[in-house]
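User: Working on a comparison across species. This one is Major facilitator superfamily domain containing 8 from Otolemur garnettii. Can you predict its structure so I can line it up against the others?
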Amino acid sequence: KASLGMEEEQEPLLGDRTPGSREWDIIETEEHYKSRWRSIRILYLTMFLSSVGFSIVIMSIWPYLQKIDQTADASFLGWVIASFSLGQMVASPIFGLWSNYRPRKEPLIVSIFISVAANCLYAYVHVPASHNKYYMLIARGLVGFGAGNVAVVRSYIAGATSLQERTSSMANTSACQALGFILGPVFQTCFALIGEKGVTWDVIKLQINMYTAPVLLSAFLGIINIILIFAILREHRVDDSGRQCKNINFEEENTDEVEISQGNVDQVAVVATNILFFVVLFIFALFETIITPLTMDMYAWTQEQAVLYDGIILAALGVEAVVIFLGAKLLSKKIGERAILLGGLIIVWAGFFILLPWGNQFPKIQWEDLHNNSIPNTTFGEIIIGLCKSPREDHNEGSTGCPIEQAWCLYTPVIHLAQFLTSVVLIGIGYPVCNLMSYTLYSKILGPKPQGVYMGWLTASGSGARILGPVFISQVYAHWGPRWAFSLVSGMVVLTIMLLGVVYKRLIAFSVRHGRIQE
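Assistant: Here's the predicted structure for Major facilitator superfamily domain containing 8 from Otolemur garnettii:
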């Protein structure tokens, strides 16, 4: 019989099929059950390391870029930051297609090896005599290309879990991803103690300092991940009821083949879910981007205060997301994924609506031209510079407030701190809920067929959103201010809720749609 003492993720495949019952034993042996969940947990780790790979250097890219190549400017930094998402956008459908026809170990190991090699390249970008910034661009793009394995991870987990287990396992996956984004900057902060000089290993020309140590750690963890995938990961696929299926990915013979070819995937639901997911990630990417410029303009925070307070806010959002992911999987059993997704979108809308400026109080105006010590609001790269710069670089730290070159500062009311913090809490609840439910519904809509390509497109749409969101908000905010920016975002969320209303009845599991399982 399958183990009784397992966690919630290993609940019975169907309500009346409890571990030890004859029906359970027919579906799955204890050995297969344990192997399946060992494999899934290895992919939780892969997802965690993938997000750490993105976030572990995000705060140190700008000073490192300036150190290795004096010709690098703000616009080039924008390209370096965006190259990760561009690489992931290109790679996701490729790895997804690969995983549909070959054992999933292959794209996983190749993708992680690419990330390891790219991290090593990043550690050596100071060595060439010229064009160093382009080597950094290539390195970050390749790390993103390796992170395209997110599509393989999610398609594997979708294919290796029954409908009953799906929401729980997807929630755990998303929680691991969120945890990676939280801990990456923490690792970076710890490595800052090494300092800029660090130690040099002359034989192999390797500098170990605050800029290179994080990527070397990422490379080391990647090698461990490859070893674990080789040793533990096995190919598993079950249908929506939990019966084992055969397909091209399997390495061993299985006794219980289930037909999975009957019935077509609802393409309208697939496209709609991709759009929903794009909007959810677009909105959160622009929110992350605008937090620092907004708080400096509205509350006259110095660079040092903004980086500290906004860093705490983003870390708190990450912790909140992990809690929400774990809570959402319990709630979904009672009211279903579609209702939670709708509720999440309404909460996100409320968060942005609350951010609209009201009243007669105006922000403090920064009358001087202070390009050197404020966060310029024209490009994604320049906003990132503001996040990365040390406050000691400020030439006139006393001058704060809303820069006079942003004409809207003179007539747009201030967004009160209580407004801002309420909005942060609401968006922090709504975003993880929408993210998780989009993925979960998508995997259920696709059914037991190989999901690699479809998951690749979903991951690619999310990567595209992370590129476009910051560009959109930085342009609108700089030229028209927060009232226009947040009105447009609120309108976008309303249109998304209307889209969800139109396709609501179509967002059902493949097996439910074809009458094989009761909803």
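For your comparison, note: Residues 265-365+401-518 form a domain with the Growth Hormone; Chain: A; fold (CATH 1.20.1250.20).

User: Helpful, thanks.
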